[in-house]
Amino acid sequence: MDEYPEGSLDNSIPFLLTFGTRTTTEESDSPAATLSHALKDEAILIRSELEPLDSDQARAVLRYIKDRDASNLPCSARDSVPRRYRFRVRSAERSILLPPRRARLPEGYEPPSPTQPLVLHSPYSPLSPISTLYPDGIIDPNWLRKHQYLIPSVLLCFYSLVADPTLSTLCDNQIKTDINNIRALLSQSGYKTRLAVVLLSEHGSSSSHASDGVQERLEIIRRGCGLDSKALFLVPAGGSQEELERVAENMLTTLYAVAIDYYRDLGRHSRKKRSRGVAPQPTVPPTSGTSQTLSLAGWNVRYDFKTAVFAEYRLEMDVALRSYELAYENLLSSELMELIPSWSPRWNEGRLLADTLAVRCLRCLLWNGQHSAAARRWQYHRERLADLVDRRARGTNNYSWEAWEARWAVVMADLIDRAGIAELAPSSQRLYLPPEKSAMGERLQPWELLHHKGYWYRLAATHVQARRAFAHAIPDDHRRSPGDSPATLVAKSAFAYDTYMCPEPYEEYPLRRPGVNHGRIIIDLLTRARDEFLKRNQVRLAAEVSLDCARELAMTEEWQKAVDLLRPLWKDLPFRSEGWTAIAESLTWGLRAAAAQIDDAELVILADWALLSRDFTKRPNWHYDISKALDDVDVSSKPSVSVRDGQFQSFISAAFLFEGEEGRAGQSVRSQLSITSNAQPESAPVVLGSVYLSFHGCLDGIILRHQKSEQPASARGKSIISTVALTRQADGGANTEKSAEDGSGLTLLGSADLTLHPGQSLVFNMEVPLREPGETRADTVTLHVGYDDFDLRQTITLQERGGKSLWHISPSRTKILPRPNPLAVRVLPRPPKMEIRRPVWKEQYYTDEPIDLEFGIENGEDIEALAKLDVVLFGEKPPSFTLSVPGHEDQISSNVRSEEARISAAPIGTIASAQSLPVRLRLPPIDRPSGYDLTLKVTYFLPTNPGTPISQNAVFQLNVVNPFEANYELLPRLHPEQWPSLFDPGNVVIPPAGDDAESQPPPQGISQAWCLVTRYASFAAEPLRVTDVDIVIHPSPAAQYSLTRRTGLPSSGVGRLVPPQTIQEAAFDLVAKKATIDDRGHAPLDVSLVIRWARPGDAKAAGEEGAEPPAPEKINTTTLPIPRFNVFGTEPRVLASVSHHRRRRSGRSKEGEEEEDQEYVGAPFVTLTITIENASTHFLTFGLSMEPSEMFAFSGPKQTTLSLLPVSRRSVRYRLLAVGDEAEGSASGIGQGGKKEEEEDEKKKDGREKQEEEAAGVWVRPALVVRDKYFQKVLRVIPASEGVRAGKEGFEVWLPRLG
């Protein structure tokens, strides 16, 4: 687009001129903003008499405005940063030149009539004689430049508003005078430029009085200058940068609306002129040439063009597009271009205007997002002009048309670049844009879609190449300059060539001097296209373009640039592997030629190595000998070249196979390596210096060195199979290859004939020893070619062949290995003969006991072994354990993780053959049921193969369970002591003072008795001896507890042998006493059951008789937590207790006779005591009633009332005696429902116990009711002693049988 006249294709952006500030550079010196010499004399000077502002505030505001210049912004409606305004900004200090509004008359011209003055027009109008358009031109590109760079839409004047009150009036008057002068000059110029004023305040005070004074001065200035309120702006002093930017932003937003009104007025004026329908007359009638003035159709094109330009200023792109299209069609109609002869200068001006209209149409379409319409519009203009030039001009088969085609393609690329289309950005990786919705239903051709810039640059390069071809076809007579040619020849060829925006033939391709550098233009365009293709990963197109560019560089003998261009593509792009052999061949030959010219030895060697392939076309008279690669290259030192895998498809391929799928450590596996040549048939053989085969895993690297065979070359066939013996050599030896340094610590060496003829395969059979277990895979094969002039190494990555793994049996026979992965072998560990045995383990292990685990490590090898032991205990929070090995110190485990305890590599010494070594693990007592995985790993080494470790693993399950489980019941009992009285002053607790303040006073509160009954069961797999059962009472601040223990265990201390799955019972009497009588809250009772037990020591200990107490160190303690109980409370409770009595025989007992041996007479009777406790602070009254029964007789109150004081208790006693037939031996008839309950009890007892109970007595249910008199609530009677139990319908009492 730079070849078009300046300003003709620029974006139409409102022009803002800042006036009155100091500028570092005079922008009016730019070519676009400079008036021509013909107009400078008539220019209008706008000048200010005040000094330009140079304060920091003025510079900051001016800098912000210039930073918002939209000249270089993308021409797109979808801007990434939304903007409220767009300005093209220029700055001037205190003077500007405006072009004259009217053109002057020609010199020496006399008006025909002094009474009729001539009408003067714009110097850019075809009506003015001084205009280049006079008399029949259409539009001058300078008219566009006038509105873009010369005549501002807004003139923004800067002044300083002084703060000195003594100078304020004077300065304000100077500002008003200067503004009025500028306004008058603008009015005299005839332009409608809007005037705006910015006042930079120096007032630093923010008081209301100062603000009122500034506002008053502003109003005076505005009225004195006749300014609109939207045209006067105040920038306060002392504000922050953010405030200044906010003021400037609001100012520019306001001015943008003013500028849009300015261009709207200009557009309205153009439409008004077009609507007249009459062609205006020129100032002076034409008298030369055809004396033809511009027709009405031309005037319509001119006015449509102006209307469209002003609409574009206003960003009304739809309006601008319609006007541009209308002007374009009228321009190329039969009324204008069809009538202009091709030899006339107006013809080229018409073509220039057509291009300008088409470019602006494209810009409007891209602005609106009509991408496919823009591509079709570009093609339409190209075809339309081609048809016009073929019919009316000199045709399209010439260098001029190809130059225009190239220029037109570059214009489209520049428009796409300036539009900033995000969908075509390189990051999107799109090659073209899909059609918009309006074109979805049409069948579009591929070239009717908008492609990225690389497509257009490449198209332009193609046309430049065609232009060069046409230029080189120009005859020599036409290539001479006019001064060196006869006049007749000059006249004959004057109009033979089309020179639209291109030089004459003698300048396009001169005969004796350089002309247009077509090659440089082509290289520049191809380089741009290549960059765009690479950004979008179009590597093949980039390679093709690079190859064309390299040819151009070769034509200009720029060899280094050609190498720099082709080297990355040749090394990085796998053309041959993808089937692009032709591109790869051309690229390689071109790179080889350029590299030879600059003596690049590495590239020459690589190119010759690649050109040996049979896939390329054989070139006659080429040596095809890699040893002669550097014959025409000057080198200062011996080069060393490396070819990485995938850089290019080499003519040498390699394959490797393991015959077996698996093997064992210490053994060997058979393998086969084949190297095949696909070189040109008549090429020289390649002698490989060495071959290095590397593995990924535990195998050694293999090096094959060249050793010439005595067999003549003629006797060698297509495939040569040889067996190579491998020997082991340590890394770093004198003969170890450098390529093996990256391998393992040992290297296998072998020798073979490595001479590789064209089309030949070298097959090597090898026995590879296996060392360590694991999977090993053949990785790469490195070929080394060494000559006197250079060294070359090529690395080939071994790959699977998709089921076509061929094993060479003989030179003519192969077989397929039916293996999915023949490159890998699975090395199994050597079978271990070391056994880990568990001699004696207990049947089950329990919590709270130390655990000793014994193991035996038995050596089954034929020789002794040096062993190490790894022990891992895995589970939830495993304990630390100790490992004991005879002859070694004990080792303690470490917790590597929260779920793992480990001892690693514990030395256990040398174990002789067929011997066993005992080891012991000690675990501390474990306090919870757990399950662990115990892993023992013995790693040993044999003296015959000390480098190969052999391991044996053993995994054991260790389960630790609870030996006992228990349930608990807390039964109330009647405490024999009296409760303290709430009304006794002696029970008042006085806090101690002095030294006794910290001592604990004795408890003086109420007391209660309880019985804790525990039933524990053994869940062990064997009988356990329980030596002691106890409870531990945890202290409580609310009460004090005392314990009376009753376990039922033998008093000898031997304990009791508890069989598995049996239940034992232990009862404990507790007494709880409150600290004070005032405390009536609940008291917690926290108790733990402690069972001391031991495993039975021997067979004798398993019985009860003759057993001895176990040793203290063998007694284990198991603590079972008991759920919390709550004792005491404020609710009243009723306790029932019994005592049995029988009257003794009268008289004294005999001397020495025990009490239990005395004789009793009379019927046995039972005393039932009903105790009511009132622990509250209220007076309570209870009613008691005892109903008679047929089962027993009683003495005592049948009905009575008890009144209880606060914190007190009272008792009522009844004597009960069993009567009736049922009481004499039958357990039936014990009150209502007693028969059924007795039947249920009988079912639970064996026969013998049932008979004993029936003979001893009977359970009866007294019909005793205790009722709260106030709440009328019946209280439940709670059993509080033996002989009383709770039934389904009340409490029951056991009465002995009569007799």
UniProtKB/TrEMBL annotation:
Please state every residue range assigned to the domain named Trafficking protein particle complex subunit. 346-614
* Top-rank lineage group of the source organism: Eukaryota
- The ranges of region (Disordered) come to 271-292, 1136-1158, 1224-1256
Q: Any idea where the Gryzun putative trafficking through Golgi domain is?
A: 641-1219, 1256-1296
Indicate, by first and last residue, each region the UniProt record lists as having compositional bias (Basic and acidic residues).
Answer: 1234-1253
Q: What name appears for this protein in its UniProt entry?
A: Trafficking protein particle complex subunit 11 domain-containing protein
Organism the protein comes from: Remersonia thermophila
